[in-house]
Amino acid sequence: MTEQKIKAVILAAGQGKRLGSGEAGIPKVMRLAADKPLLGHVLDKLSFIPPEDTIIVVGYMKEQVINAFPGYAFAEQAQQLGTGHAVAMAKEQLEGFDGAVLVCCGDMPLITEDTYKALRDEYFASGADCTILTGVYEDKKPYGRIVRDVDGSFLRIVEQKDCSPDEDAIREYNSGVFVFSCPTLLECLGKLKSNNAQNEYYLTDVPALILEKGGKVSLCRRELGDELLGVNTKEDLAQVEALLKK
Question: What is the rounded CA–CA span in Å between residue 95 and residue 76?
Answer without folding.
Answer: 16
